[in-house]
Amino acid sequence: QVQLVESGGGLVQAGGSLSVSCAASGRTSSIYGMGWFRQAPGKEREFVAHMRWNDGSTAYADSLKGRFTISRDNAKDTVYLLMNSLKPEDTAVYYCGTRSRFGGDYDYWGQGAQVTVSS
User: Model confidence at 77, in pLDDT bands (50, 70, 90)?
Assistant: First the structure.
């Protein structure tokens, strides 16, 4: 099993920056990739970014490219999501998840981190 613990997030004014982190533990050798998703009130969960575990290659939702950056601290098995130029519509609960193979379902999820952007 893989355990994911999220931290960070909070409240920021529009135009500001925030980061969230996701620390993985347990069978991290089974991880193919880690993704960030978000879910705003009344909306479905949507993809934000992904990082492939073995080589760090990244992918982003087209609408978020240039404002959001996913990165990793290999020594800590922790993945970060840095969010810049935040907008009120970025307000959501942000979740990290891991999957064990390309194109597979996400098997494990973090507890979620609230990000609130005020106008």
Answer: very high
Angular region, 8: left φ>0, alpha ψ -120 to 50, beta rest = left
Does residue 28 sit in helix, strand or coil? helix
9, 18 Cβ separation under 8 angstroms: yes
pLDDT band per the 50, 70, 90 thresholds, residue 41 = very high
- Cα separation, 12 vs 18, in Å, equals 7
Output the six-digit token pair for 97: 């998840």
Rounded-to-integer distance, Cα 66 and Cα 73, Å:
21
Q: What are phi and psi of 31, to 5 degrees?
A: -80, 130
